[in-house]
Design goal:
By secondary structure, the protein is an all-alpha fold. The chain has two helices and no strands. Helix 1 runs antiparallel to helix 2.
Length: 82
């Protein structure tokens, strides 16, 4: 057993640690990418719902302002939309 065999053992251990570290970094990277895509899709889907709800609420407010519906009906319909 010469000094080269000890050095080779140390080098293989170091590359093993680097391999594990790179695997952890790659796993973290892909986790962030997947979470970002999922959150982005949920945000896009949520945008459509909010705009439709806002439009319906605006119409409801106009009907209440014109006196077409009573305060109780306005409150009930507003709760349904929220």
């Amino acid at each position: 057993m010469g000094p080269m065999s000890c050095m080779a053992g140390a080098m293989s251990w170091m590359w093993g640690a680097w391999g594990i570290g790179m695997m952890v970094i790659m796993l973290a990277f892909w986790s962030v990418v997947i979470v970002g895509v999922v959150l982005g899709i949920r945000w896009l889907v949520g945008q459509g719902k909010e705009s439709r709800s806002d439009a319906a609420l605006a119409i409801l407010r106009q009907r209440y302002a014109r006196g077409e519906i009573l305060k109780e009906e306005f409150g009930a319909k507003k709760r349904e939309l929220s």
